[in-house]
Specification:
Distance between the termini: 30 Å
Shape: globular
Strand content: 25-35%
Number of strands: 36
Strand order of the largest sheet: 21-22-23-24-31-30-28-29
Amino acid sequence: MAGVPEGGGKDEVKTQFVTREGTYKLMNLSEYSRPNRTMVNGQVNTPVHVSFINLGDQQGTGGERICFNVGRELYFYVYKGVRKAVDLTKPIDKRIYKGTNPTCHDFNTFTANADILQLLVGFSQGQVQLIDPVRRESVPGKLFNEERQIDKTKVTCIKWIPGSPNQFVVSHSSGHMYVFSEDLPCSVTIPTYQTFKQGDNFSVHTCKTKSTRNPMYRWVIGDGAINEFAFSPCAKYLAVVGQDGYLRVFSYDSMELVGTMRSYFGGLLCVAWSPDGRYIATGGEDDLVTVWSFHDHRVICRGKGHKSWVNSVTFDEYTTSLDDLDSFEFAGSDEDILMNINKSKFRESLKSANSMRSSHRNSTDTINSMTSYRFGSVGQDTQLCLWDLTEEVLRRPFGRHRGSTIISQNAVGVGNTHNNSHSESTQQLSNSLPNSTVLDDSPIIPNHSQSHSVTNKFATLTLGDHKHKEKHKRNFSLGVKSDKMSAFKGNHVRPLETVKMLGTVQCPGMNDVPMLEPLVCKKISHERLTSLVFREECIVTACQDGYVCTWARPGKASLSQQTQPTAQGAATANANGTVV
């Protein structure tokens, strides 16, 4: 994938970018794709997703594995990260599917070891397959919803239930979410359901059968497709985002709705929890990232940087800095948390991540003791945005903040303009003043008393008006309401009163919450970006044309220069693989 270093033309694809930690560099020899490096047919609209698993070091080859889908193909490789070049001619497993495309996948981290590796794969026609890519010849795959009796629509998200060896959750574009058990058979006929629980705009059902069969539960959520869901770090809560624009947070075991949030407009496409479970970040068709507080049940800020839909958002635990880790607690009671995760191990991982982060900073940096969350997002605009959520934002009360802007010199590479009278001078000050400056309707005056402000170390924070300038044509998909509404009536689901939420803490106006600007906003691909993963030594991104790229963190670019496999050799490997 051709590109230029940071500082080239505005529309040129970047191969590196700079943050306060240092320079992130694209590792060209660590790029994963089809073995013959051909692009995906433009008519295929299935997003490229990436999954990782660590099996421990085996015979010196490293224990990390990567799985990604491209069109109707599924690839499984040893992941060599930033240390060695990838050999695309030697996939561990490759599968080519007929009549359907893989859409999402997830490894079972609970049972994974050198002998067993369970990988769930969801498909565009609604089927779900359980495979073992390591023992592909001795362990046949198992199909769920094979005859499409349970659901005929595309699988949008699939995840193993944390801590469970055999249960997983599958969501579909029908707006239904199903709980399966690996050990149970599926119904051979169209299931008949009975209501188990219901609430505001959701209901839970069980199958009417003499013996227990899959699906164990069916959730009907919202009005339109379920686009993604994510379990909290404590595994007690489930965050679900859908095409109706709602974030819904459930207590998974009790099946109770504990919180909601609505997008500014359009559907929500992605969701992620912060490492401590205190915040949830979402992205969607409003071109914004939105951060919702689990504790306060309110939107605490939005982020403006993307020029099109946000396809993926995730937190970076390796550059997240949490003050007073010893008093750090997850959402939920200690008893519930200890049943699912080991908090002491997680504290150690965060402390290790914070130590790594500190090593990239100046020894005189006073921000180490402050709380900040780093998260990233990628979108249809081919841009990668990195954001910092700091104490200065977290402590702001809900209310009107019209016309004020907080500027920082560290908000680099932001290709956006403000729609106020100070926009031009604001950009100049952000690159020249050593201290943070607060702008409002009064003249621009530096605030020297805030020379050590948290904002001086992090991304720009805007509290002004937010007005989108449409620079491209987009088609908004608002879900198939006719079919879903008939399902709601049959299941006695009560719709939320959307109008009443506008201007509230669940859906605040643009002037009611702070507006973040990204720390970094760079065009890194020619095609729309579909996946983003933060790892200890690198950042991994994937785009729609089938390229999975590795970006080495500062000081980690130590890739040995090995010869890239030739196209002819790669074509030979392309002949191998399993056709399903």
